[in-house]
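Input structure tokens:
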């Protein structure tokens, strides 16, 4: 368990960090309403929309989480030349994130629309392209990685499988010599060799190595580490907490969520806090513990949510008193 003095010393230097996020930029759109009747046209609820709102999603949400922690954040990704791209630019500016965007007029800015009523998500509608980026767009991203690699302390690769993350881009981050934290997509598993750490959830971890459900989490974790030549791995286990693989050691960290309303963006929060704490001098175990607390907090909120330093302190201090 973290001592209060140690916790404060780590959090106090968050504002000195500078981290780059690379990955799939997503605009999260929310339609909030109420349900009073079933449609006469089909057995589906009729949602009376009261308001709509927009948030940063995907790699954009990782950047928002970092910025909320006080980290100087650079966000690198692809947007379309469309209204959603403009909305992402506006939200990024509003949240004090430095944009390093590449515009691609051949693809739309990814949008996920969630319809929510009575504190429940009823439906999600996706508008996106999953095509690989053109060589020209990849060259522009690689140029931006080279430009920012000297000024940042680490990279977070947020892979949502929308076509932005490629072997060239991952290796450019690895070759920078800076720590590389990856939130993976199983279909791109083969791309992540040589990174510092990745943070799959249980389902993703098993999919990565095509393991049967009967296999232990220890077996799966060690397979991943061998395949990718990793020394560190963090697997999130939902209500069972986390498993931190550190060399030959496996540390189980119990879950901290007191209520679960919405798991949207929880993985974004976990990797953001993990990277920030580690780059602020925390051990891997301390980094995982704080990420676990933060992840437990955001699943208790509806929609994408972030954790601020004072909130993180309050969460941990509250648990120290239990």
């Amino acid at each position: 368990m973290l001592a209060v003095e140690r916790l404060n010393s780590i959090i106090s230097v968050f504002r000195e960090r500078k981290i780059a996020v690379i990955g799939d930029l997503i605009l999260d759109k929310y339609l909030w309403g109420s349900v009073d009747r079933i449609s006469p046209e089909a057995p589906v609820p009729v949602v009376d929309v009261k308001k709509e709102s927009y948030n940063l999603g995907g790699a954009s949400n990782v950047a928002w989480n970092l910025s909320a922690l006080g980290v100087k954040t650079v966000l690198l990704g692809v947007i379309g030349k469309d209204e959603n791209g403009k909305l992402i630019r506006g939200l990024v500016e509003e949240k004090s994130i430095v944009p390093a965007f590449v515009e691609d007029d051949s693809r739309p800015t990814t949008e996920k629309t969630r319809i929510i009523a009575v504190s429940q998500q009823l439906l999600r509608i996706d508008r996106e392209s999953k095509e690989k980026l053109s060589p020209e767009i990849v060259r522009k991203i690689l140029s931006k990685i080279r430009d920012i690699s000297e000024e940042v302390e680490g990279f977070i690769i947020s892979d949502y499988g929308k076509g932005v993350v490629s072997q060239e881009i991952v290796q450019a981050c690895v070759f920078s010599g800076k720590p590389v934290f990856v939130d993976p997509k199983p279909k791109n598993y083969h791309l992540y060799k040589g990174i510092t750490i990745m943070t799959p959830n249980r389902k993703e971890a098993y999919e990565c190595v095509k393991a049967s459900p009967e296999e232990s989490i220890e077996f799966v974790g060690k397979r991943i580490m061998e395949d990718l030549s990793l020394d560190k791995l963090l697997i999130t286990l939902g209500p069972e907490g986390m498993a931190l693989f550190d060399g030959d050691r496996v540390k189980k960290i119990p879950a901290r969520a007191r209520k679960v309303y919405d798991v949207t963006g929880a993985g974004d929060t976990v990797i953001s806090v993990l990277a920030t704490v580690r780059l602020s001098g925390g051990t891997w175990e301390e980094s995982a513990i704080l990420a676990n607390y933060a992840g437990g907090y955001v699943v208790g909120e509806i929609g994408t949510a972030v954790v601020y330093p004072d909130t993180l302190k309050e969460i941990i201090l509250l648990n120290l008193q239990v």
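The two ends are 12 Å apart (CA to CA). The first strand starts at residue 18 and ends at 23.
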